Amino acid sequence: MVSSERNGNQASSSGDITWDRIWKLNVPLKVRVFWWRVIDGYLPTNQELHRRHVEQLARCETCGAADESIRHVMLECTMARMFWWQTKELTDVKMPNLCPSTWAKDIIDPAVVCPKEASLFLRGMWSIWHSRNRRKHGEDVVLVQLQQIRSTSGWRAPSSEVMKCNVDARFHPDELVAAAGVVIRGEHGQMIGGKSKWYASVPNALMAEALACRDGLLFAQSRGVVNLWLETDCQVLVRLWEDRVKQRSEVSFILREMAELSASFVSLTLSFAN
C-alpha cells in the first residue's frame, strides 16, 4: 500500500513538473494544451488510429513511411525535416538530437533545450500538426514557403489570361539535400496554390533549381493551368532551357521531362527573376 502511494505521488510530481515547464514557455495556451497531448500520446496519428482499428494502415500519407507516429510527424517526415531545415536557415536555431523515447519531455527540459528555443520548437510543431491535418483533408498547404518566394514585393504580374508560377530551391551542400518551393499566383498577386517538397541525394544547387522548375510545371498541370509563366532565380537554368535541344548538361534529363510537360500547356514561358 505504501509502495503504491509512493509511486502515485512520484507520477503526480512528474506530471506537475512537466506542466510547470510547459506553462513557463512563451507560447499560446492552445500550444501548451497541444504539447500536453503530445506528451500523453493523445494525437490521432495514423499509427494510433490503426492501433484502435480505425485506420487500415499506419503509414504516413505524406512521405509513405510505414508508421506515422507522433515523433515521425514532428521530426522525421519529409515535410517536418524540410520545416526544421528552413527554420535553421532563417533563425540559425537547429533542432537538437533528441532521445526517441523521451523527446517530447526533453524538448521542454531547460537542461536540454533553452526555453526560448523550446518555445520556437513547440510553435513549429503545432503548425506542422495542423498543416498535416489540412493536407489529410485535401487542402493544398505550403508549410514553409522559401524566403525568395514569400512576398509579392518586386513581383511582376502576368496578363489576365496567364497564371504565374514562381519557383525556388534551397540546397544544403553539407548534407546534399534540397527543398523546392512552388507558388502560383493570378494577375493581382492572389495566391492560387502552392507546395513544397524535400529532396535527398541532390548533387548541387543547379539540380535543385531544375527540380523546382519541374515541380512547378507538374503542379501547374495538376491545377489545370493553360497559359503559364514560370519564373526562377537561376539564370543558368533559363539559358540551358533556351538551348535545351543542343545542350548536354547534368540536368538534361530534367529539361527533357520539362519539355514533355510543356506540351500540356497552350503557352509556356520560362524566365529569370532578376
TrEMBL record:
Transmembrane segments: none annotated. CDD domains: RNase_H_like. InterPro entries: RNase_H-like_dom_plant (IPR044730), RNase_H-like_EbsB-rel (IPR052929), RNaseH-like_sf (IPR012337), RNaseH_domain (IPR002156), RNaseH_sf (IPR036397), RVT-Znf (IPR026960). Residues 166-273 form the RNase H type-1 domain. SUPFAM superfamilies: Ribonuclease H-like. Residues 17-84 form the Reverse transcriptase zinc-binding domain. Pfam families: RVT_3, zf-RVT. GO terms for molecular function: nucleic acid binding; RNA-DNA hybrid ribonuclease activity. This is Reverse transcriptase zinc-binding domain-containing protein. It comes from Oryza brachyantha.
